Model the fold of this input.
Amino acid sequence: MKGNTRSVLGALLYLAAFTVLWGVLVFIGMPGRFPGLLHPRIWSRALASSIVLVILGAWYLISSLRGDREACRPITVIPLFLLLLLVPPALRDPQVDRRHLNITAGGNLPGINRESSDLLSAVDAVLREQSTDPDHAEELGRLLEQPDPIIIADADYSRTIDLIWDAPQRFAGRTVETVAFVFRRPDWSPEIFTAARLSIWCCVADAAVIGLLVETSLLDAPRENDWVRIRGELAVMDSFDTGSVTMRNAPVLRNVTWESAAAPDFEYVFPANW
Amino acid sequence: MTNVGSSRVFNTLLLIALTGVAVQMYRSFLLVPQFQLFALRVITMFLEALPFLVAAALLTAIAREILPSPRIVQFCRERRPLGLPLIVISGFLLPLDEVRLPALFRDLRSRGLPTPHLAAALLAIPLINPVVVASTIAAFPSKPELVAFRFLAGLIIALAVGALLVAWTPPERNAESRKRTSPEEAHPGPVTESGAPESGATMKARADRVIQKGLAGFLMLGRFFLVAAAVTALLQSIELPPALGQLRAALIPSALVATGLAYLLAAPAAGDAFVARGLLTVLPLPALTGFLVLGPMLNLRNTPVFAQILKTGHVVLLHIAVFALSLAAALAAALLMQWTP
Done:
């Protein structure tokens, strides 16, 4: 047993580390604790795999106690999970600068999910309006049939925004209302911002801004990062330079009124085809 | 207490102290918003990949208990035409992660697998593998065409390079190899890290080996993945110089960068799709196809393994061929996706 002490100690540390990991994942999964850190599907998979690791660690420990195995340096697992033991706060923390989330590193555009921006950035929205996809046409028809104001709700936020970006001309003159935060790039004109939400595919590592451009007067503009309930009339902007890509036929809200709003319990939205 | 014992205690205390310092530094850095975001990205990427890393490590440990089938090896040794495709797709039946390649290499060599087939297997098995398929689907659920393209391109490249190696390697060398090791001589079970046959064929002994090797494999995969995730998160979090920022609009330079990154990062194939998705902010999707195809086949980790089994000239040619074909795959992906800058 004496010669096996290191192995047993290692196994104990191993088991402890994975148990803590398991605890952290359970903690993350608790509603409201870390909203948006991970999509529920992802954390449930991560939780299941950590349970597997805990079971294997327990087997390893029991075998070690019986003295029938050599040490495999399980202590190395500690640094591996150091980051997990000190999970940073989720992105709702006001310290997080949202500008670093999206456009700075690439060509992401408000209104277009990052993943599809490659294909869509240079495509005229008018062309996309001519889509022959019957589901798309049906959804577009249903949205257009809604009476004013068209309320962009959290549950179908991404899909509604996608539809408006797909066919901005057909929504011209319609009134739209939504709750969003104020996002603008430093190089944008002060009269322009995006009424934005963060769309996450799986987790915050994917967060990308989606939303609608808003044109307002300098004096009326809300502060960056503030949550607002905003209502305005949709129009079409011939072209808009995001700083990385020039977009044509971009939908924009004009004649807006807004009031401060509380951030939603769950700040993030998911892509339409999740 | 003996000198060895006191040295161990000292090392343990030193490790605890250094860990404490690291934790404090980490906590301090968390006050910086950019670092907070960086840490979140690394963690979430890791948690996403975790199930696949665990599955890859465990399946590798299980597969090593039963791989490779002597029939497949015999098939390849006789240089039958189907030997090469068979060994290339064998990863689908017996998945192995590439982090254990040196052990796999010893296993296969001890069974007398001819050199060209061995190289083709080392190229293909880490990529053509159900865990990698599943993780790629999980990372790109809306892009089945990308998933199919990745594996088709990988299959074609492994077969093409394997065929080249078969053509380059004279049959005499294989005859020599046959003389040196035969299936009868080859040990039927797995070998240890030192190359010696492992003992113990009872179910209990096998289960113990699977768990021990599975856990050790997971630690290895996890470490390599964390390094790749950290570099990716860094690229996502920092302001890139304008020249790099323009990479998304230039296919060939971005494909070169993507394949170069795949080689240097050496992310485990079971999780590299999540790394690739993280790189979407820097590189366009077609270029990342090159990353996904090349990474598991050729990287900093397996170059020394190829150097052990092939002549230097063949190693260089193999690298050039795989790099060129991966770049071609990225360009083909751009055409198929109708990519525009």
About this structure: Chain B has 16 helices and no strands. Chain B touches chain A through 66 residues (CB under 8 Å). The two ends of chain B are 68 Å apart (CA to CA). Residues 27-336 of chain B form one domain.
